[in-house]
């Protein structure tokens, strides 16, 4: 499995959010399961309490269709 840099991914995500400006951002962030797992491991209490994983205000969803170094913002 390819190594994922969350720092790089977050930088790209922040750039995407800024470039969208006042446009509707979306509600979900689809990421590779490896990224989802990494975020979940950093928030064990949220996961244990059944809260949805959130990143920059977007609900995190995992999909094998998204490459590890990419993401997709959807409504």
Description:
40% of the residues lie in helices and 20% in strands. With 75 residues, the protein is α+β, with helices and mostly antiparallel strands. The protein has one domain. The chain has a four-stranded mixed beta sheet with strand order 2-3-1-4. It is globular, with a radius of gyration of 12 Å.
Summarize the structure.
This protein is 40% helix and 20% strand.
Show the helix and strand layout.
Layout: H1 6-20, E1 28-31, H2 33-42, H3 44-48, E2 54-55, E3 58-62, E4 71-74
Parallel strand pairs: 1-3
Antiparallel strand pairs: 1-4, 2-3
The count of β-strands is 4
Name the overall outline: globular
**Roughly what is the average pLDDT, rounded to an integer?**
88
User: What is the quaternary state of this protein?
Assistant: single chain
Q: Strand order, biggest sheet?
A: 2-3-1-4
> End-to-end distance, in Å?
29 Å
Number of helices in the DSSP assignment? 3
The biggest sheet, with number of strands, parallel, antiparallel or mixed sense and barrel status, is:
4 strands, mixed
- Percent helix range: 40-55%
Give the number of domains: 1
Low-pLDDT segments, ≥5 res: none
Strand content: 15-25%
SSE arrangement, N to C = HEHHEEE
Structural class: alpha+beta
| Cα Rg | 12 Å
Give short descriptive properties of this protein.
40% helix, four-stranded mixed β-sheet
């Amino acid at each position: 499995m390819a190594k994922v840099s969350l720092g790089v991914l977050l930088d790209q995500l922040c750039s995407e959010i800024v470039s969208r400006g006042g446009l509707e951002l979306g509600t979900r962030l689809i990421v590779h399961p490896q990224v989802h797992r990494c975020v979940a491991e950093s928030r064990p209490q949220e996961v244990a309490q059944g809260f949805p994983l959130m990143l920059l205000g977007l609900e995190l969803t995992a999909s094998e269709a998204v490459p590890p170094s990419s993401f997709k913002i959807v409504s």
